Every structure is written in C-alpha cells, then in structure tokens.
Amino acid sequence: MAAEKILESLKQLQTQNKPIEACMVAKKGLEGVIMFPESFKKDAGPVWEPLSKTLNDTLSLVEKYCSYNLDKICVQVLGYGIAFYVLGSSDTALIVFVKKVDDTLKTLTNLQPEIEKTRQKILQSL
Q1: pTM
Q2: Where are the beta strands (DSSP E) in the chain?
Q3: Angle at CA 100, nearest 5°, toward 66 and 72?
Q4: N or C: which end of the chain has fewer CB within 10 A?
Q5: Closest among 8, 15, 23, 37 to 94, alpha carbons compared
Q6: CATH number of the domain located at residue range(s) 2-125 in this protein
Q7: Angle at CA of residue 66, ends 89 and 10, nearest 5°
C-alpha cells in the first residue's frame, strides 16, 4: 500500500513539472527502489546506467551525513542535474532528474516547493 502511494506521488511530481525528466525513491543497497522507468522521458535514458553504478555510493553519503541535517545532494551527470532529497534521518532519498540547463541549481530551486510537497507525502507514506 505504501509503495502504491509513493509511486503515485512520483508520477504526479513528474507529470506536473515539465523540467523533471525522471524521479524515484531509493534506499542504500538499492533495496525497495520505487520508480517507473518505463515512463522516464526518452532523453533521461542515457543517465540511468552511470547513475545506477554510483547510486549506492551516493546513498551512503546520504546515510553518513543525515545526522548532520543533510537536506539534499545535487550532482550533474551527462547533461542532467540530479538531486537527492533525504527522507528523514535515513539512507533513503527522493531522487529527481532535470535536464542540465545554464543554471540547473536555479531550475531545482524553482521546483523546490513541488519537490518538498512530494517529499512530505512520501514521508507520510513510509
């Protein structure tokens, strides 16, 4: 039931925000990954392979620094800005992909209210 609510929140976030190419929830060890790759926008495909190779390492950083009130980590890979929004004090994050533009951080900042609303919905579902 929680997974269905989370999946619906992810779909809503992506479909209502054009700059978002893809989004998912993932936990260290890649256990319980919730995503819908079949609905990823076509251009987001190339970023998946390099990200999947480093995803667990990035989630280890999330786990390591969440005790210091880490809120998010942003990286750029293959022309995409990827933001990891920490879900509570855990090794789990809401991960949002946006196509890299001149100012990817500004794009993510503009999306912040919607991403934060989705993060709160997901936290309530856990």
Answers
A1: 0.85
A2: 20-27, 72-77, 80-86, 92-99
A3: 10
A4: N
A5: 23
A6: 3.30.450.30
A7: 65
Query: For residue 22, which of 71, 61, 60, 55 has the smallest C-alpha distance?
Result: 55
Query: What's the burial of 94, exposed, middle or buried (CB within 10 Å: 0-12/13-18/19+)?
Result: buried
Contact 36, 116 (CB under 8 A): no
Environment class of 10 (CB within 10 Å of its CB; exposed 0-12, middle 13-18, buried 19+): buried
What pLDDT, on a 0 to 100 scale, did the predictor assign at position 108?
Answer: 86
The one-letter code for the residue type at 12 is Q
Contact 89, 100 (CB under 8 A): no
**Rounded Cα–Cα distance for residues 57 and 60 (Å):** 5
Tell me the chain's radius of gyration from C-alpha atoms: 13
| pLDDT tens for each residue of 50-81 | 777 777 788 888 888 888 888 888 888 777 88
Q: What is the chain's length? A: 126
Low-confidence ranges of the chain (pLDDT < 70): 1, 30-45, 47-48
* Domain boundaries of the chain, sorted by first residue: 2-125
Structure tokens of 30? Answer: 């890649």
DSSP letter at 90 equals S
